Amino acid sequence: MPRFESNMASGNSTSYVADDGGVSGPITWDDATWILTSSFIIFTMQSGFGLLEAGAVAGKNEVNIMMKNVVDVVFGGITYWMFGYGFSFGEEKGSNAFTGVGSFFVDADGDDMGIIYSTFVFQLSFATTATTVVSGAMAERTKFSAYIIFSVFNTVVYCFPAHWVWGNNGFLRELGVVDFAGSGVVHLVGGASALVAAAYLKPRMGRFDKDRKSFAMNNPAGAIVGMFMLWWGWLAFNCGSTFGISGGKWKLAAKAAVTTLISSFAGGMVGILLSVIIYKKKYSVEYMINSILGALVAITASCAIVRPWESLIIGAIGAVVSLGGNKLVETCKVDDPVGAVGVHGTAGIWGLLAVGIFAAPDPQEQITQGRAGLIHGGGFYLLGVQCLCSVCEIAWSGLVTIFILFVIDRLVGLRMSREDEMLGADLTEHEVGSWPTESVHKDKCDNTNTVRRGSHIMIGDLTIPVSKLRDNLSRDNFKRDTFRKSKVATIDNDKSVRQNESNMETEVDNNNDNQNEVSLHL
C-alpha cells in the first residue's frame, strides 16, 4: 500500500510516497477527498457484515450478532485511536522493523493535520473490518461481555502486521512483500484469528451430531443483501488503497475496480457451478455468497498490479479455496457458523501467493519495487517473500488470539451457559427473541423439542425453571408475550404439581399429557 510522509524540504507539507521511497507527487485536495470518501464507504461494510452474519445464524441470535458488530466499531475504534494507529504507523524515536512508536491518541495540527487524520480514518476502517471477521466465527455461543473485552484487545492482532507490511520500516515491507489492499494484513489476519477462536470455543450444541443435518440459514435473503453491501464496500476498499487520484494514481484506481469486479464475477460463476454439481442441480445460497466473497478477498492484494484476465483466474481459484477451506474446517469439526475461516483465511493466503505468481512491475508507482511475479519472469523471490508473509501473519494472529481468549476465559468466561445457548443470546443477553408457539415441533435452528411441564421448561434433555426465564426477562414482557400471545396455559396453580415439584418428572409421567403438558417453542 502506498503511504504518506512529510516532505517539508520539497516545499510541500505532505507528499505521496511510492513503495520504492520515491515521491510521486504532492497530496492534493482531490486525493484527500478520495481517501475520506473511500473510508466512509468502507465503514458501511459493517452493515454488510452484520446482515450477512445475522442471516447465517439462528433467529434467536440475530440481534446478538448485530450488536457484536456495533461493539467491533465502538470498542475496536477507540483502541485503534488510542494505540493501534501508533503501533502501525508511528514514526517517533523507538520505531523499528517490528512496531511503530508515536501518534498515540491520534491528534494533529498544522500542515500535517489533514493527511494524518485522513490516513487514520482510512486505516481505522481496515482495523475494524479485521475484528468483524472474527465475530462470525464466535457466533451463537460467546458471552457478550467476553466479546466486548475481546474486541478491545483484538486491535493488537491487527496493528503489528499492518506495520510489518505497510509501515515505513516494517521488516516484511523491506523484504519486498506486496499486499496492496489487505488480503493478508486484513483478511488473513482476521481469518487466522477466526480459526483459533472457533476451535477454542468448541462447537455449538448439537452442531456435529451424527443424526443431524447442518444448521440452516435463518434469513438467506438478508444474507444476500449483506453480500451486496460488502461487494459495494470492497470497491472502495481496493480502489481507495491508491491513497489518491492525482498524478497516475487514478489509473491504478480504475484498474483496481476492473480487476476486483472481474474476480468477483469469476467467483460467482464457480459458486453456481459447484453448487449445481454438489447439490444435484440446486443453487446454494451459501456457496454463491462465499464464492464471491472468497474471490474478492483473493484479488485484494494484487488488484492494481495484475491484468483483467489474470484477475479472472485469481477469483476463480479464490472461490474454490474458500469453499474448500470451509469444508476442511467442517471436516475437522471446528464450528465456524459463517464460513469466515475459508472466505478470509484460505482465500487470503491464496491472495498473497497470487501476487508472487501474477504481479507485473508498475513503472510509474513501483508498487512491487520493480519485482515481477513468476509468470512474468521474476523468478521465485517475490513468491517466497509472500509465503513468508503468510506464515508470519498466521503465526502472530493465532498465538496472540489464543492468549487473549485464554485470559478472557479465566477472567469472565467465554462460553455461554448451556441454558442460555439453548434459549438464544437475543433472549438471555438483550431481552428480545423468539417467543413460544402452541405446538411441539422440531426447531429448524436447534432441532430440540421445547416443552413446558409444570413450573419448568424442558428443552431436549435440559430442564430450566420458569423462574430463571422470569429473572432474565421483565415480568410485563414475559406475561404478555409468553402467556397472552401464545395462549400457553400454565399449570403452576395446580396444588398437586406445586407440592411435588421436586419430583416433577415423575409427576408428569403419571398425569394425563393433555392436562399437564403445554408446548413452548423458543
From TrEMBL:
Q: Tell me which UniProt keywords the record has, alphabetically.
A: Ammonia transport, Membrane, Transmembrane, Transmembrane helix, Transport
A single MF term (Gene Ontology): ammonium channel activity
Q: Name one GO cellular component term.
A: plasma membrane
| Cellular compartments annotated | Cell membrane; Membrane
What are the boundaries of the signal sequence? none
Question: What spans are recorded as compositionally biased (Low complexity)?
Answer: 511-522
Q: Please provide the Gene Ontology terms (biological process) for this protein.
A: ammonium homeostasis
User: Does the record carry DNA repair as a key word?
Assistant: no
Please report the stretch or stretches of sequence annotated as the Ammonium transporter AmtB-like domain. Answer: 34-431
Its membrane topology is listed as: Multi-pass membrane protein
Keyword Amino-acid biosynthesis annotated: no
NCBIfam families (UniProt xref): amt
The family annotation for this protein states: Belongs to the ammonia transporter channel (TC 1.A.11.2) family.
Entry protein name: Ammonium transporter
* The organism of origin for this protein: Patella caerulea
